[in-house]
Amino acid sequence: MPDFQNRTDAGQKLAHKLIDYQKSNDTIVIGVVRGGLVVASEVANFLDLPLDFIVVRKIGCPNNRELGAGAITQMGEVVFKETVLTKQGLVAEDFKGIIEEELTELQRRKDKFREYQKEQTIKGKTVIVVDDGIAMGVTLKATIMSLQKAQPKKIILAVPISSLNGKEYLENDVDEIISFLPFQSFRDVEDFYGIFGDTTDEEVITILKNSRV
């Protein structure tokens, strides 16, 4: 039996681990679009906190696009996981076309979703970054790097499930990593969910329309 029925269920369970931040005046929840925003919206609703989003895109390997070798931020900055490049015998130049493709999709999402909610100021605030899980962690590495440039007071990374490797890869970049389930070794986040399909643009827009700002 899966640990979570779906992302909504995961967000509701995760929210209880963050009760200390309920109704905090200087805290904001940021969901990683698209799937992470579903989890984040449940956290924000339970804690009565404002919700925002961030768009980051995974950079898949040329021969296996599901295998994340890096990620690209909203500012167009690229982060690679060197262990993956080494293991796959690849260098950064091998990803030029993929990066251009992902940057185009990133900008499309950002422009579309910002029509429904303007970007909120996070300087000097505690930011709770929420995603649906951490496997390798490279997408969240890029997410955190992007948010750090906005000078938040503190960054808390909150996820329903995180691998041990993912935790170790990210723990020096944030103030705290909070997970509903114990940190453990696994390959795919979706194995912990009953339903783990793609989140649509329409679902994201609905969440943003109903979110507290």
Automatic annotation (TrEMBL):
GO terms for molecular function: glycosyltransferase activity. Residues 6-177 form the Phosphoribosyltransferase domain. InterPro entries: PRTase-like (IPR029057), PRTase_dom (IPR000836). This is Putative phosphoribosyltransferase. SUPFAM superfamilies: PRTase-like (SSF53271). The keyword Glycosyltransferase applies. Keywords: Glycosyltransferase, Transferase. The keyword Glycoprotein does not apply.
